[in-house]
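One chain given next:
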Amino acid sequence: MNIKRNTSSFKEKNGVSFFDNIFYWIWTTVPSKGFPDRSFVVVTVCQFSYVLLFVSILLTLFDEQVQLCIYDKPEPIAIPMLILLIILSFINLKIYDEKKYQKLEHGFRLMSVPQRKKYKNIFLFSC
């Protein structure tokens, strides 16, 4: 039996996601006294802003009566959004830690310089 091993590159196996890219470059550029291990907060804020954008688009689809009702009493929307922010914070706290950074750093070292530059440009344009 001839079993062929899969020896694909880091990019093919573990493509760097948008938020992984943000996390890696923030951790890399923040000085050590700037608490780079708190980079997950930036990822959380980015994810939460996308959720808020989606919710605001959905709210514009309602008629004026419903919109006025929601804007007069924002608690039905604000409380779930606050709970979502807390949940996202805890999830990202577990996902984006030093182990994740080391894994990404190893992957970025395996990449060619143009690939690394491409990912850094994506990060710079996203901020």
Remarks:
- The chain has one domain: 17-126.
